[in-house]
Design a protein that fits this description.
The protein is mostly beta strands and about 150 residues long. It has 3 helices and 9 strands; from the N terminus they run E-E-E-E-H-E-E-E-E-H-H-E.
Amino acid sequence: MKVRPSALIWHQVDGQPQVLFMRYSYGGQDVYALPGGNPDRGEILTETVIREIREELGVSVDIGEMILAGEMLLTERNDDVLHVVFAARNIKGEPTLNPDETTALDLVWLPVAELDKFNLYPNIGARLQPWFSSATYLGYVGRIEQEYFE
């Protein structure tokens, strides 16, 4: 099983929170992923998130609390992944996609109230929505049901 740490980066627009996602296209469908990636050997998860955000988005962040962890089991491809999502704080700079470091097509801010309507990777939109009203650790959420995109 691989581990993919990622960051929840958000801001307010007209009093409504929006979350930053990287947009990809798989199988002709838009798929939105939280910024993050694969750890290098000897790297702890929070270091991975800080490095990936610096490389892919050109900004620095502080990594706060772990919001949730859950497993995505894609048995048909043997690509099981443990997703760990951390809160990102104190963003320095304006996120800008670096095409030399990612295959993402662009960056988008999605409204929290609509996260359950998008193809997210991992598919945690409905689980993230309550965090914005309670800001409490969601913990281990178990299996994350995920549609597979070729």
